[in-house]
UniProtKB/TrEMBL annotation:
List of catalytic residues: 107 (proton acceptor), 320 (nucleophile)
Mitochondrion is among the record's keywords: no
GO biological process: tRNA queuosine(34) biosynthetic process
One Gene Ontology molecular-function label: tRNA-guanosine(34) queuine transglycosylase activity
Species in which this protein is naturally found: Candidatus Kaiserbacteria bacterium RIFCSPLOWO2_12_FULL_45_26
Protein's name in the database: Queuine tRNA-ribosyltransferase
EC number annotated for this UniProt entry: 2.4.2.29
Annotated region (RNA binding), positions in chain: 301-307, 325-329
Pathway annotation: tRNA modification; tRNA-queuosine biosynthesis
Length: 424
């Protein structure tokens, strides 16, 4: 019997619900459907990232025809700064403004406030890579505190307090403030189907003491986000709200965060913060064993092929990542090797993937298809030599074709995992 969401934090028919079609014994993997006002999302699914209400280099029509994604994500921080959420609201919301005729998500803006604030230029990512370099504006605990140096840097001030975050725009240095209530207000104006509670994304190098402090603050902001959303009756009929599990790389904090947020009754859950490659699976496992089974789970900002496999087996339903278009713009594409790999737990097999930098000289005379093993339009139409030429010549079609190919590749890699789970 399918498992469906039985309750809503709003005591009314929830705009976003989840149905589980199949569970894979011995794992946390499941196949399901997220129901939204703008259509269903068959999970597991990859969410394409359109930071500023645009998938860079890809039109909405090309998304539909050549990528085949079911859902797209836009960024609250960036849309707040440009063009402004009121402009999008006046246009009739994100779907009309961007011609996105599909389910949509906006994040809370918390990660961008941090990464484009005091951490800007310091290499902060979703995966920890050892200790992050220290600076005056980022102390040993990972908190962003006021410093004279940071305050005079263009767009690099970020001050976190109990009520919210004060930051300066990376565009023009103007000062702004996000609170839980303000983030929800902005996201309601933007109008995505799924919005996300305001959270504090900590530095990968933050110690246990500060990770707990930030997690507790995220929980308080989550309650305020819920209250703010419930006060807008029109919004709660059209938008589902996700809470965000934090806790860094510490398993006990992740468990606590999952318990606290799970009891709040969100429509779904994001799993945020930074991980190391080694502890990603364990962190996801302990969280998803605790989160309500009948609610969807989104792994925020992580979506390389092997990470998706790991996330699916550990109970995640959707994934987003900027990598497909980011590496595509610089000439790197995903391709299949023709070999298969087996998941660490031995449950499923999946195709091995590789990244090819088409700027390399060896591809200048390689007249084979972009990826003979992929069924995408770009992969089956253009050659490595041609796209390599486009990048070498500085032609804008190069990044466009590489981005379309990479997005189709990841979207369909995830879709094929779904199909395999249904057959097992």
């Amino acid at each position: 019997m399918p498992v469906t969401s039985r309750h809503s934090c709003f005591h009314m028919s929830a705009p976003v619900t989840f149905t589980i079609e199949k569970k894979l014994p011995g794992t946390l993997a499941r196949v399901g459907v997220i129901h939204t006002p703008h259509g269903d999302i068959q999970t597991p699914a990859f969410v394409t990232v359109g930071t500023k209400a645009t998938i860079k280099g890809v039109t909405p029509e090309e998304m539909q025809q050549y990528v085949g994604n079911q859902v797209a994500l836009a960024n609250t921080y960036h849309l707040f700064l440009q063009p402004g959420h009121e402009v999008i609201k006046a246009a009739g919301g994100l779907h009309k403004f961007a011609n996105w005729q599909l389910p949509t998500i906006t994040d809370s803006g918390g990660f961008q406030v941090f990464s484009l604030g005091a951490a800007f230029g310091k290499g902060v990512t979703k995966f920890a890579k050892g200790e992050a370099p220290e600076a005056e504006s980022v102390n040993k605990k990972g908190i962003n505190v006021y410093s004279r140096e940071a305050a005079t840097e263009h767009g690099k001030l970020c001050i976190i307090d109990e009520e919210g975050v004060t930051f300066t725009s990376h565009i023009d240095g103007s000062m702004h403030r996000f609170t839980a209530e303000r983030s929800i207000e902005i996201q309601q104006a933007i109008g995505a189907d799924i919005i996300i509670a305001f959270d504090e994304c900590t530095s990968p190098s933050a110690d246990y003491e500060y990770q707990k402090e930030a997690m507790d603050r995220t929980h308080r902001w989550a309650k305020r986000s819920l209250m703010a959303h419930k006060q807008n009756y029109q919004a709660i009929k059209k938008q589902g709200l996700y809470g965000v599990v934090q806790g860094g790389r510490f398993t006990d904090l992740r468990k606590e965060s999952a318990r606290v947020l799970g009891d709040m009754g969100f429509d779904g859950y994001g799993i945020g913060g930074s991980f190391s490659k080694e502890d990603l699976g364990d962190s996801l496992k302990v969280v998803n064993e605790i989160l309500p089974e009948d609610k969807p789970r989104h792994l925020l900002g992580i979506g390389e092929p092997e990470d998706i496999v790991e996330g699916v087996l550990k109970g995640c339903d959707t994934f987003d990542c900027v990598a497909p278009t980011r590496i595509g713009r610089t000439g790197t594409i995903y391709a299949y090797t023709g070999r298969t790999k087996t998941s660490a737990c031995g449950t499923i097999t999946y195709p091995e993937t590789v990244k090819l930098n088409l700027r390399n000289q060896k591809f200048a005379n390689d007249h084979s298809l972009i990826d003979p093993l992929s069924d995408g339009h770009v992969a089956q139409t253009y050659t490595k030599a041609y796209v390599s030429h486009l990048f070498r010549a500085g032609e804008m079609l190069g990044p466009q074709l590489a981005s379309i190919h990479n997005l189709h590749f990841i979207v369909n890699f995830t879709k094929k995992l779904r199909e395999q789970l249904l057959k097992i």
